[in-house]
Amino acid sequence: SQKIEQNSEALNIQEGKTATLTCNYTNYSPAYLQWYRQDPGRGPVFLLLIRENEKEKRKERLKVTFDTTLKQSLFHITASQPADSATYLCALFSGNTPLVFGKGTRLSVIA
Amino acid sequence: DAGVTQSPTHLIKTRGQQVTLRCSPKSGHDTVSWYQQALGQGPQFIFQYYEEEERQRGNFPDRFSGHQFPNYSSELNVNALLLGDSALYLCASSLGVAGYYNEQFFGPGTRLTVL
After folding, report:
1. Mean pLDDT over residues B49-76, rounded?
2. In terms of C-beta density within 10 A (0-12 exposed, 13-18 middle, 19 or more buried), how is residue B65 classed?
């Protein structure tokens, strides 16, 4: 069966450091992975889509990598700010399969 | 440009009752998906509507049903409510049925509490 795991429930980092979040998956091929940000009491906000034939994608201070051998995506926020504090969700689909979300990682950036 | 809107914001029901949640998609979007998000969990896909038809369905019982109207707005109905149905119900809209390659826009959700 298809599985998605976000290993950390919570991550605390100092302002200015790089936050790295992990998303592991099994049994998705081809795999397409999305990252979302969700603030308390709000719906998720789409950040990035990366395809399995793309090894890296960047958007402003965000960088996402995709390793199909390890079946893992890393989500980096560089020069983190307190405003980056939120829950970050990864989600995968393959072709026309429904989008499946991980449980999310709650990031706290401490000033 | 209004984004995705959902109503009501909060709802309290008792076990066995029925509930209807409503969603208006982002302007120009024709596809609506519904998700259930329990506390501390990621959203779980319920179903997707396009051209007034259910196109995909997740692993939810028949108590969960939906509808899409000609103006692309949508309703989610849940019958015979259980305590376990308490969750945040999210609606997301997108353009076309090109899988999830197109960005989905989520609404703020409806918080359902079943007592």
Report:
1. 95
2. middle
